[in-house]
C-alpha cells in the first residue's frame, strides 16, 4: 500500500479528477462529469483530498460563496462532498481533511457551514460547528383563471437554452435580500443539469427563470432566477394556473404582497461563525445553492 498524499484543487489532473468523480458517484450517486465538461467547475469549488497513486480515497470539498443577510454581503464557505472510500474508513481521514480546511481558511470567512446526513451528526460539532434550525415557507393560494401564457419550458440539452440558463445564473440577483446566496452559479448549474432538468421554465414577459414542480393542488418553487427585481404577484398566477391551492418556497421569500407562514425544518444544517457574526433566524438556505 502506497503512502497517502494530500492534494487539492486538481480539476486539471485527468486521472485524479476521474477518480474523484467515481468516488462521488459510488458514495452519493452524484454525476459531476457533464457539469465539468460544460465548464461549470470554477475556481470556487476546491476539493481537499487524500490520494493513493491516482486514486482519490477521501475528500472534503470547499465551496466559496457569499451570504446576503438583510442586504449585507458576508463571506461564506460551504463544505460538501465529504466522503471516504470504504476500504479507507475509520482512519481519521475526514477529520484530518477538515482540519486542513479550517487551517487554510482560518481568517477568510464570516460563516462556514454544511448540511450533514443523520449518520454524522456527532462528527461536525468536534470542529466547532453548531446545529442550526431552518424554516420552510409556504402560503395558501387562491386559484385564478389567468391564462398560462408567456412560459417556455427550457431544455438543458439544447445549447441555446443552456446558455440562457447560465447567463441568468451568472448575472442573477440573490433570490432574497433577507437571506440569500451569491457567487453560486456553479452549484445552480449542477442542479439544472442533474436535479431539476425537467422543471426549468422561462417567463418571457418577466424575463425570469422559474424552477418549480406541481403535483395535485400543491406547487414547490425551488428558485426564481432574475437579473432584475420581479413582481411575484405577476409570476405566481402564471406558474400556479387554476388548480394550485398551496405553494412552498425552498428559499427565504421576501416578496412584497404575499402572506407566508413558516414551519421548522430539520435539514442537518451546521454552522461555524467568526467574530460577532450570527446566523440569521427563521430563514431557509436556498435549495439550489446547497452543495
Automatic annotation (TrEMBL):
Sorted alphabetically, which keywords does the UniProt record give?
Acyltransferase, Transferase
Note the coiled coil stretches, chain numbering.
none
Q: What is its EC number?
A: 2.3.1.-
- State a single Gene Ontology molecular function: acyltransferase activity
Indicate yes or no for the key word Acyltransferase: yes
Q: Which Pfam families match?
A: Acetyltransf_9
| PANTHER family hit by this protein | ACETYLTRANSFERASE
Protein name as annotated:
GNAT family N-acetyltransferase
Record organism:
Paenibacillus chibensis
Amino acid at each position: 500500500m502506497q503512502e497517502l498524499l494530500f492534494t487539492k484543487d486538481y480539476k486539471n489532473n485527468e486521472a485524479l479528477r476521474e477518480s474523484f468523480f467515481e468516488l462521488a458517484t459510488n458514495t452519493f450517486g452524484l454525476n459531476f462529469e457533464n457539469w465539468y465538461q460544460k465548464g461549470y467547475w470554477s475556481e470556487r469549488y476546491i476539493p481537499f483530498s487524500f490520494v493513493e497513486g491516482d486514486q482519490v480515497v477521501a475528500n472534503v470539498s470547499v465551496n466559496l460563496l457569499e451570504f446576503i443577510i438583510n442586504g449585507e454581503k458576508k463571506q461564506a464557505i460551504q463544505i460538501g462532498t465529504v466522503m471516504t472510500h470504504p476500504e479507507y474508513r475509520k482512519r481519521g481521514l475526514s477529520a484530518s481533511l477538515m482540519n486542513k480546511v479550517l487551517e487554510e481558511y482560518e481568517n477568510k470567512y464570516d460563516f462556514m457551514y454544511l448540511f450533514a446526513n443523520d449518520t454524522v451528526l456527532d462528527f461536525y460539532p468536534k470542529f466547532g460547528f453548531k446545529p442550526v434550525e431552518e424554516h420552510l415557507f409556504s402560503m395558501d393560494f387562491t386559484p385564478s383563471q389567468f391564462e398560462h401564457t408567456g412560459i417556455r419550458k427550457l431544455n438543458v440539452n439544447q445549447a441555446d437554452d443552456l446558455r440562457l440558463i447560465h447567463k441568468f445564473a451568472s448575472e442573477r440577483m440573490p433570490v432574497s435580500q433577507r437571506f440569500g446566496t451569491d457567487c453560486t452559479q456553479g452549484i445552480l448549474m449542477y442542479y439544472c443539469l442533474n436535479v431539476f432538468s425537467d422543471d426549468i421554465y422561462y417567463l418571457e414577459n418577466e424575463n425570469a427563470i422559474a424552477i418549480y414542480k406541481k403535483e395535485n393542488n400543491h406547487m414547490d418553487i425551488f428558485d426564481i432566477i432574475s437579473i432584475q427585481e420581479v413582481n411575484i404577484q405577476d409570476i405566481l398566477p402564471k406558474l400556479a394556473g387554476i388548480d394550485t391551492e398551496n405553494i412552498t418556497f425552498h428559499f427565504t421569500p421576501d416578496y412584497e404582497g404575499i402572506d407566508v407562514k413558516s414551519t421548522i425544518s430539520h435539514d442537518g444544517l451546521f454552522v461555524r461563525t467568526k467574530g460577532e457574526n450570527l446566523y440569521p433566524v427563521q430563514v431557509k438556505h436556498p435549495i439550489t445553492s446547497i452543495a
